[in-house]
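JOB MANIFEST
job_type = single_chain_structure
chain_count = 1
residues = 190
[input]
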Amino acid sequence: MNLPHIDNQNFTNQDYRTSMLSKAEYSYCAFTNCNFENSDISNIVFLECEFFDCNFSNVNVKHTTFNDTIFTTCKLVGVNFKDCNSFLMAFHFNRCNLSLSTFSELTINNTKFYDCKLHQVDFTFSEIKSCLFQQCDLQDVIFENTNLEKSDLSTAFNFSIDPSRNNLKNAIFSKENLSGLLKTFKIKVK
């Protein structure tokens, strides 16, 4: 599919719930305070784009490409990133709410999550090597057969990770959050 190219454009205060974002390849574009909630952005390409204060809750991202994309203070509740185009997938999240989203069966190595809320996010069978979860709330996150090798969870909190069911080789934790690795074994740390 040949998509039209849209480069270096700014989109502000747009409501894509009623008028859909045009199918295109967006490069170096910025989206500020846009509402994509329950909309369809399938088959759209975002290359080195930035999203600020946008709402992506329950958006359809089937075959959507996110390459070097940054989300800042965005709401991404219930997004099924598993449906995205996984080729060259790369993004970072700053102060975002990603609760109830899924990254299962994806390879998203080197992804940075800064001060994010990730309640009930699914990372089942994912490869998330060398990721950073800085000051992230990981309450009820699903880590099952997840490769967390070299990932930094030293400032993350509210997580429960079973070391026998995930790859934690060279992952970084702090002594303050080690109890998140022991909950499965019903061990209490004082």
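[summary]
Residues 145 and 166 are 5 Å apart (CA to CA).
The two ends are 58 Å apart (CA to CA).
exit_status = 0
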